[in-house]
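the two lines:
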Amino acid sequence: MLILKQWRLWVSLLLLIGSYLFIKPNFEKQTQDNKINFGLDIQGGYSYLLELNEEEYLNNLLVKTSQYIENTYSINSNINNGQIVIFKNQNLDALSNIVIQNLGLEVLEKSDTENSYIFSKQSFNKSLSDMTLNAVEIVRSRVDFLGNKELSIQKVGLNKILLEIPGDLDNNVKEVISKTAKLTLHIEKSNIVGSKTFTNEETGEQVRVQEIPNITGDFIQDASLQYNQNEPVVAFSFNKEGSDLFAKMTSENVGSRFAIVLDGSLITAPVIRESITGGSGQISGGFTNETANNLAIILKSGSLPTKIKIIQEKQIGPTLGQEGVEKGVIASVIALIAITLFMILYYKISGFFTVITIVSCLSLLFAMMSLLNTTLTLPGVIGIVLTIGMCVDANVLIFERIRENFKNNIDDPKNHGFNSAYVTILDSNLTTLFAAVFLFAFGFGPIRGFSISLIIGIISSLIVTYIILKLFLNITSIKYLGLQK
Amino acid sequence: MINFYSFKNISYLVSLMLIILTVFVIFFKGLNLGIDFKGGLNFEVKTNLTTSQLNQYLNFVDTEREVLIKREVGSDVYSIRIESGDNNPVFIEEIKNIIAQNSNIQILLSEYIEPTFSEELIKNSIYALASSLLVIAAYVWIRFDWQFAASGIFALLHDVFVAIGFMSLFNIEFNLTMIAALLLIAGYSINDTIVLFDRLRTLTSSEENKDNFEINVNKSIKLNLRRTILTSFTTILALLCLVFLAPVNLTEMPIVFIFGVLIGTFSSLFLVLGIVGDLNYEAVLKARDS
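prediction for all of em together
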């Protein structure tokens, strides 16, 4: 049997079985991994792109680093215009270059009395990126607590977070993701120095308190919505360290008021009646069920490192996507049938091989997309349709070359034709492939969806043309190919 | 047999006119930038109201912002674009409520982009496009002589640029999806060109009449003509299906791409090999022989 000696036969079978196995999980309900996900433009849903404030983060980092230097090395420092200025004294030797480097700083200027440093771009970006990863987890837990199951959340760029929620939206999502949720507790203080007045934005109540917080929300371990005489309140409990601080603050200040401040505005300012040692408390202040629950969720999840801004929001109704998919599928099928008919009419048997090649190309493409957990978007569907175009083009190039060789009486017209055409195909497809890779690397949103299906499509097309189409050409006598004219 | 090479001067003229026309259109008409690149709000709504009724209804919104209403071709779907302004977050919620209140209007899609972010997207898209084009240039340069690379890149930029002019002329919204379409046009253009280059290179290095550049050019085109026509035909066939069946907000991409296929076919048939010839490739070949 000649056909059994064709290595392409075995590789083809392997490809088909592999494709089948990788596509299969898409039709199983329970599995999560190795499936093609549908983009929001197809299934409908909400997406938010959040941006953390880079400037605020830089300032926080400068303050933290400068304090660290002061405390550890007893060297006076100052923050000026994004730089840390260190005043020289006898301790400066301890602050070796290695320490400076480990802090991510680099020398900007040195003079007789002071050195100024800035963060190196690399270390700052790394730090910014780490902060964003941390924030991703906080946002994730906030949205999780609201009970959204199938959301996707990922870091984009250095300081952005993309949150995508398929299906219907809980109205509270926007509310809980956009709050920084910096909770601070301050003891009332009457003299001006070191104090600050906070205002309740709704009631206008004002209270003058010590500016530096006694306790921050970082110590909160748990928070929940509870009811106190039928009024919704937020109950919270501190961890061990927080409990100790809270006990100390309350026992030392019985009779005075303390302010509970969230993101710079006063929520409530209760009077301390007795020392609280259990490490738990309640915040009440005209909450509704929803606002109390939202506050509990953000306290439980922790505060975000900086202010957050929604820089893109998108809401796609389910009808548009469904209509899109239905139409897209119909379009692809009609395009496929039209091309198929045309190829068979024009190239006879060879045209039929093209059809097999296209179908294999599509199954390999979907197999790879499933394996890589790719998200399929509408521009991605357009990319796939164009991949079919490139696959047909490859077939046409090969057939035409074989036909030409046949006409010119060249030896072994099939193999020569295939090989010379395949070089051309490689050249032309690889250029598009490289371009698509760069498009994917730099692009955003629809561009990425489009380029990923183009990348996978070109690779599949190159593989199936080389293996499966060639197999059929090999095993068919040239007389029957329909390429003699 | 058609002497394609003899058309090259006319082709240069046509191409020059297209470029000038594009410059004019872009200069006087500008690009219809979508919110991806301009920031602001965009709604796709389904409604049985007419454009003027919709316009009137939206006049309730007390705003200084520019509001653009456009009916999507052949459907009862309208796109409403509102420019960005002060206090966007509050405004978005307000306008959403106003639109949602009218039972005759169904919101299919709403999107908001902060202007600072759209600036970033512009930068991003330029990087993406420029780097992809550079990679294409580098690849062609490595695989072929520089005359080919220069001519291929010219054709590609020509096609992309004229396609931008086409978008401007017909007021097609320029957004992120269109960046993908432009790159696709670039890919298609270079694809077509490389197939011809491969052929010309083979012919000039092995055939008996390799000295006659003009004959070889015509021969390369002629041998590939059937493929060029077949491929353009099948691609346009597939794209036409998309035009009629893609969701309303995506019909413009295949239209632009069909134009790209046509202009790409023109430039590869009539432009690229002429340029290779005029870059004195014949002399290079002769020098190689001796």
